[in-house]
Amino acid sequence: MTPSPLPADLRSGILHLGLGAFHRAHQAAFTQDAIAAAGGDWGIEAVSMRNPALAEVLNARGGRYTLIERHPDGPRLQEITVIRRAHALPVNTDAVAARMADPSIHVVTITVTEKGYGAHIGAKRLDRENPCVVQDLANPGAAPQSLVGLLCLGLSKRRAAGLAGLSILSCDNISDNGHLLRALVLELAGETDPDLRDWIARTCTFPCSMVDRITPAAQAETLALANGDPAAIETEPFRQWVIEDAFAGPRPAWEKAGALLVADVRPFEDMKLRLLNGAHSLLAYSGALLGLDMVRDVMADARLAAVIRWHMASAAHSLAPVPGFEIDGYIDDLLARFANPAIAHRCKQIAMDGSQKLPQRLFAPALDLIAKGQSFESCALATAVWLRFVQGTDAQGQPLALDDPLAEGLRRAVADAKGDPSRLVSNVGAILGPVAAALWANAAWQAAVTGYLRTLAQDGVAAVLHAAVDTANRP
Question: pTM (2 decimals)?
Answer without folding.
Answer: 0.86
